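$ ./design --mode recover --in tokens.txt
reading tokens...
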């Protein structure tokens, strides 16, 4: 909205009106604005949730400090959504397809998570929304994102090529195709020519190669959205854990989007140039500000939990964002912690069911998701294949260590753009 106002102010030569033309200024403004919104409305929303007695249902898992969290307000993800939405509506380009798709994805998953939290609280059902409905919602979003990228004429790219000079020095120059095309390419890590075309997998299908490649891409999109959204949901088990790790991932993706949306930096790094994706930086800046502001209240001891309203949403946002900038395969590195949490639950439940006899079964971890494993003692009281660590690790230390790992993964992800 303000963007259009500043366009008018430029027409009448109003001093400073051109600031809105600069992506860095709008992104910085979005970050500060979302942070301030979170800090100012966060307290009021928390108080409102307390008055409505919307408290977290805590299962007795015999974890240190667990029962002290009983009654802590949940559904705090509403704070993150509002603080991201308002700056984007004010200073974002609402004619940009990338911005619209990110806002739609956030609201879609926000509603899905809200329904899950509502069922848990209003109906006193600790399981919340049935898993099949959650998966259906995530699959539906992945399908919408994939089909939109296929149909939209504005979602295009310019492929990069290396040209070796014929001079004696053999200087390598990066050039781009003269025309913007709709292509099914993504970035793969640690490979010199790191553009992978999905059509490579379907080239044997002749005339059906391109349609089949798009179907493959949509399937990958669905998988990444579902896995990342569920991974963030499972990671949200300790104070500040999901919010902190998501902030690190979000900052990393914002940097990559800025580089990929700028033809100069794209050329220097020899990565594909994606016109129009610079607007995504504004969205992600607002998202980062909202997450940092939420951490103000969610840090240990937490005054509010994000609930599924927040955790399902932040994971989906990260996945959709990476897909839109054609970096979905880099999520394997960047969001490895989310996928490890997914994997720990999958392995734990599968082994337990396969070995279950008389209500008892074998376990790999002392407890799943993985972050809870470190809160349990490894003295043999719990029959599990992995007994390390012997002593329980305090919650705050687990969170900080996960943040450190997330920073390491973020640095590695950015390094893949140059180290090949």
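writing sequence...
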């Amino acid at each position: 909205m303000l963007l259009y106002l500043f366009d008018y102010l430029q027409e009448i030569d109003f001093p400073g009106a051109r600031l809105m033309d600069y992506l860095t200024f709008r992104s910085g403004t979005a970050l500060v604005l979302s942070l301030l919104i979170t800090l100012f409305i966060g307290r009021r929303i928390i108080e409102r949730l307390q008055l409505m007695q919307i408290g977290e249902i805590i299962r007795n898992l015999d974890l240190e400090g667990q029962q002290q969290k009983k009654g802590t307000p949940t559904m705090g993800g509403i704070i993150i959504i509002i603080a991201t939405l308002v700056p984007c509506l004010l200073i974002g380009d609402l004619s940009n397809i990338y911005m619209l798709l990110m806002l739609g994805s956030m609201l879609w998953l926000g509603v899905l998570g809200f329904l899950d939290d509502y069922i848990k609280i209003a109906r006193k059902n600790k399981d919340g929304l049935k898993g099949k409905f959650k998966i259906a919602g995530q699959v539906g979003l992945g399908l919408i994102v994939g089909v939109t990228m296929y149909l939209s004429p504005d979602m295009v790219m310019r492929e990069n090529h290396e040209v070796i000079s014929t001079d004696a020095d053999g200087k390598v120059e990066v050039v781009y195709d003269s025309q913007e095309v709709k292509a099914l390419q993504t970035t793969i890590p640690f490979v010199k020519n790191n553009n992978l075309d999905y059509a490579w997998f379907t080239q044997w299908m002749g005339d059906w190669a391109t349609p089949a490649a798009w179907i493959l891409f949509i399937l990958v999109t669905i998988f990444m959205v579902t896995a990342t959204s569920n991974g963030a949901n499972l990671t949200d088990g300790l104070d500040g854990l999901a919010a902190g790790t998501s902030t690190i991932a979000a900052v990393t993706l914002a940097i990559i989007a800025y580089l990929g949306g700028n033809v100069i930096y794209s050329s220097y790094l020899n990565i594909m140039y994606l016109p129009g994706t610079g607007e995504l930086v504004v969205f992600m800046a607002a998202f980062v500000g909202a997450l940092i502001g939420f951490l103000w209240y969610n840090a240990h001891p937490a005054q509010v939990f994000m609930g599924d309203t927040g955790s399902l949403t932040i994971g989906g946002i990260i996945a959709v964002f990476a897909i839109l900038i054609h970096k979905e395969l880099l999520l394997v590195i960047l969001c490895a912690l989310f996928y490890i949490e997914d994997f720990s639950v999958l392995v734990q439940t599968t082994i337990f069911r396969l070995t279950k006899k008389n209500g008892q079964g074998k376990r790999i971890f002392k407890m799943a998701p993985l972050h809870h494993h470190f809160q349990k003692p490894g003295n043999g009281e719990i029959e599990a294949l992995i007994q390390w660590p012997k002593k329980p690790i305090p919650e705050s230390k687990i969170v900080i260590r996960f943040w450190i790992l997330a920073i390491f993964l973020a640095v590695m992800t950015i390094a893949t753009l140059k180290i090949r």
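exit 0
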